[in-house]
Amino acid sequence: MAAIGGAGRGAHPYMANALPSIKAAMLKDIGAPSIEALFEQIPKDHRLKGGLNLPAGIRSEAELKRHLTDLLRQNTTCEQNLSFLGAGIWQHHVPAVCNEIGTRSEFLTSVWGTAMSDHGRNQAWFEFCSQLGELVGMEFVGLPVYSWGCAAGNALRMAARITGRHEVLVPAQMCPERLAVVRQYCQPPEMASHIRVVLVGHDAKTGRMDLKDLTRKISAKTAAVYFENPAYLGVIESEGTEIARLARAVGAQTIVGVDPISLGVLAPPSDYGADIVVGTTQTLGAHMSAGGGAGGFIASRDEERYAREYPTLNITVTETMKEGELGFGLTLFHQSSYGLRDEGKDWTGNSVYLTAIQNAVYMSLLGPEGFREVGELIIARAHYAAQAIGRIKGVSVRYKSGFFKEFVVDFTKTGKSVKAINKALARRGIFGGKDLSSDMPALKGCALYAITEVHTQADIDRLVAALKEII
Amino acid sequence: MSKVEVKEVHQARWNEPVVMEMGYPGRRGTVFAEPEAGVTKVVGMAADLVPAAMRRKAKPALPEMTEPDVLRHYLHLSQMVHGMMGVNLFGTCTMKYNPRISTHLTLRPEVAEIHPYQPEETMQGLLAVVHGFDMILRELSGMDQFVFQGAGGAHAAYTQTAITRSYFQSKGQLDQRTEIISTIQTHPCNQATAATAGFKVITLPIEENGYPSIEALKAALSNRTAALMVNNPDDMGIYNPQIKDWVKLVKRAGALAFYDHANFNGVMSKIRARDLGFDACMFMLHKTFGGPKGGGGPAVGAYGCTAELAPFLPKPVVTKDRSGIFRLDYDRKLSIGKVREFMGNLQIVFYAYAWARAMGGDGLTEASDIAVLANNYMEKKLLAIPGVVKSHPHLGKYRMEMTRYGLGPLKEETGIGIVEIGARMTDYGVDSPWLSHEPWVVPEPFTPEPGELWSKEDIDYWIAAMAKAVDEARTNPEIVRTAPQNAAIRPIKGDRLDDPAYWATTWRAYKRKRGKASQAKPRAAAS
Fold first, then answer.
1. What residue of B is the nearest CA neighbor of A124?
2. What per-residue confidence (pLDDT) applies to B3?
């Protein structure tokens, strides 16, 4: 690692006590002969010999900034390029107020204060849960977990505990990354508490869950049926009511994964029989950040048998000593791993709680009409794009209607690989859709295109023109 | 010390309503364009594109507010958060300065507007940061490879349990290696993730000297042992001097040794996990490495291991090829797969890289020096306050970067304990200290950790604020018992938090239950 020249020789700007006189004063008060003497607990043969082989610190912010921006300049962004990548992280508009609040020093630096000293943050968390509860139609919402996939994994484990069963049904065409996380959470078969993950096929024409296959596989052993809306390949699962009915008939839980930005136009999962709802929080005002914007949520009816299985931190509104004043405190804390260690519900720790505040801001900014508008704009432009792309010779769209913002483009008849097409698009300043060839063998030669409110008709026309040129 | 003047401060008190009660029908905060005429011409009405059965019927009951009203509401809430606005020595969490250069740079599109599936060649700068920070952690730990997919310290512990499974699966021993050993002073996330991963957990108790006996470890080890998951030093600032022998025993039993480096600040640059024999370790970038707490993430649990375990790491792994190009290596047949989608919270890795480069080898060394110096300074002064004791007072050696104290004697004398004292300290601009994970070991525990950020003046102020609150417990107990006096709200009522008839994690649940509760009362009175 190269040292940076002119790093600065003054006392380090992040360390107030990095002055010999202060160190000496503290040592004197302690009565210790040296700082080294304070490390007496560590046996000599444990100590690192020779010091760290790292360059000296860059104490000058100007120099540090130069180094960092030199690195960042090597990136090409989705603002410079026109990007149609989605598949779990999407380029949505992030309102400026989300950034402003998400970088407020008070929120940025808060840790575990009391219900009083961190009142404002706790209220913002409660408002995240409350607004999300309105979108998904559920009364109990936990504070967020790491990601959609992690939320699905937690929810499937909740269902296994609730039903005492160890088998779950999930769509075969589920996002491979989410499925990998779910498999991780359900453990390999060697483990005694393993939860068997059974894949349910899809209808070739519509892309929706194959109910015949579901009927074949569902049984009294099934803890939960999980499906998504919209599904990984963009399709709206309109048979939710029937899936939930089949699940209920065998005593299984229905878990629905959603992208909440769709819920201004799509029915909330509670309408079609969901018991537990999970999903992403990234689309609610979080940047993509190369995947760092990921976040997940878990929601359900406010019934004890669900509430008492949450692995999340949960915040409740409560009263204060002052008549009429509301405050917020943690509820059901003891069932977490903080309270019960290995007997707790999965585990609880740092998550994406700052993102949750940005999510709260986003939902307040949009309101009911904003969600309707953004949903309608996305679905309209996505269908426009699908039709325009589908008209290109040799190119077809796999599921032509009934999708929200993503759709599968089949390039097989062009004789060109998605990889080659995306390379050619990149030369024209466009990131093409995600190549599905490697993850899903049945979709070799196909790509998943994402359209959001940031894509104008002109952007889509530009993509279509570029594709025509290439193909 | 007597010169330090403790001042009362007052938090903002906005009496801010819950956002669900704000707004006015028809007001708008964010407006979107209508679909272009050319779009509508082709696809028709947007609402008709949703299958009929799947259309939303009732609008979500969200607030209807203007953009500036939303801004002001959340600004008001932010002003009612203590965070690090005053002095905050929240122990075990290692309060660090989060350089705002990273706050600003990570909002630039070169970080914020990067999609994880972009071609590698279009994110070389970001991958250079990831790889560069990997190299820094390798030097600090002696490990061979780090990944950043874990979104918190607990998630890195979970990564360890998943790797433990795959490692023994590859050896055909997973049926047999069913137990993970930990200690009672190791963070609960280790035992919890081990259990979630399907292992039986054995937790060793501590002995007189503050750590478990090596005999207890020997008795727990067997051919069923899959791994040891342990921290060192613990949250009491006690370093287990036998840790090298522990690791030897664990390895001899054929198990893996994982070092939870949550308490790294005091040993940073002094010891390395690999040198002690560990197979793997974890660092929390939102603690030791200057990433913001954010109230609990986005965070990163950086997980590093030896070359022997590296094939099992979650994918992708960022590698550097011979021509200096950074690659995302997905082709890893033994990989555990994923613990979370994508590559991790790379914006927090960016913070950590920037912080570590600003500190440098010299700064990291000095930081751990100062952290241990400041803690022992603080210990000396705190123990001079009547009513304050520390855990394991018979151990004469200097503690590491934190010490666990207790207010047991004060509680016995006055009936006032750490919760009330902590609340009263917030009236002086000092956030309540972290108490302790279970088991407390000492009654009425508290664990401040000064670290390298806070000045001697800040530390002196913290001590003086505690001394003042302790003094008030004797001279004016009512003001302490009903503290905080100057916070955004009066103390919450804690007795109903876990009552299913009252808990409400959403406004809609609150409205339903409040309705019920207020109806129930008159009826009860009538009968």
1. B77
2. 80
Chain A residues near residue B105 by CB distance under 8 angstroms: 65, 68-69, 72
Identify all chain A residues contacting B303, using CB atoms and an 8 Å cutoff: none
Chain A CB within 8 Å of residue B205 CB = no
CB contact under 8 A, B298 and A355: yes
Residue B178 contacts A where some CB pair is shorter than 8 Å: yes
Closest CA in chain A for residue B272? A48
> Distance between CA atoms of B125 and A344, rounded to whole angstroms?
41
3-state helix, strand, coil in chain B (%, to 5): 40, 10, 50
B198: distance to nearest CA of chain A, Å?
6
DSSP A260-290: GGGTTTBPPGGGGT-SEEEEESTTTT---GG
Length of chain A: 471
Contact B50 A315 (CB under 8 A): no
Across the A:B interface, residue pairs with CB atoms under 8 Å apart total: 752
Residue A9: pLDDT band (50, 70, 90) is confident
Q: Which A residues, 76 through 95, put their C-beta within 8 Å of a C-beta on chain B?
A: 76-81, 83, 85, 87-89, 91, 94-95
Q: How confident is the model at residue A5 (pLDDT cuts 50, 70, 90)?
A: low
Of the listed ranges A199-208, A341-350, B514-523, the least confidently predicted one is B514-523
> What are the φ and ψ backbone dihedral angles of A369, each rounded to 5 degrees?
-75, -35
Question: What is the dihedral angle through the alpha carbons of B399, B400, B401, B407, rounded to the nearest 10 degrees?
Answer: -30
**What number of helices (H) and strands (E) belong to chain B?**
15, 12
Give A438→chain B minimum CA distance, Å.
11
Residues of A in contact with B356 (CB under 8 A): 54
* Cis preceding linkage at B439, omega within 30: yes
Round the average pLDDT of chain B to a whole number and report it: 96
Q: How far is B527 from chain A (nearest CA, A)?
A: 26
ipTM attached to this prediction: 0.98
Contact: B505, A45; criterion CB under 8 Å: no
Number of residues assigned to chain B: 527
User: Taking the CB of residue B332, how many other CB atoms lie within 10 A of it?
Assistant: 16
- For A81, A90, A261, A450, B166, the CA distances from A427, given in Å and listed in that order, are 10, 22, 31, 19, 41
Distance CA B399, CA A261 (A): 51
Whether B41 and chain A come into contact, CB under 8 Å, resolves to: no
pLDDT, residue B523, reads 37
Say how far apart CA B161 and CA B189 lie, in whole Å: 11
The residue behind tokens 């939102």 is: B286
* A287 to chain B: closest CA residue: B112
Kindly report, residue by residue over A377-423, the tens digit of the pLDDT: 999 999 999 999 999 999 999 999 999 999 999 999 999 999 999 99
| B324 has a chain A CB within 8 A of its CB | no
**Does residue B527 carry a pLDDT above 90?**
no
Q: Would the pTM count as exceeding 0.90? A: yes
pLDDT tens digits for B409-447? 999 999 999 999 999 999 999 999 999 988 999 999 999
Give the amino acid at A454.
Answer: V
Asked if residue B330 has pLDDT above 80, the reply is yes
Sheet holding A167-171, edge to edge: A140-141, A296-300, A276-280, A253-258, A222-229, A167-171, A196-200
Q: Which of residues 119-158 of A touch B (CB under 8 A)?
A: 119-121, 123-127, 129-135, 138-142, 146-150, 157
Which tokens belong to B512? 């339903």
And the tokens for A438? 């490697």
* Residue B517's pLDDT band (cuts 50, 70, 90): low
Alpha helical stretches, state H, B1-122 = 37-43, 67-79, 100-105, 109-112
Taking 60 as the threshold, does the pLDDT of residue B525 lie above it?
A: no
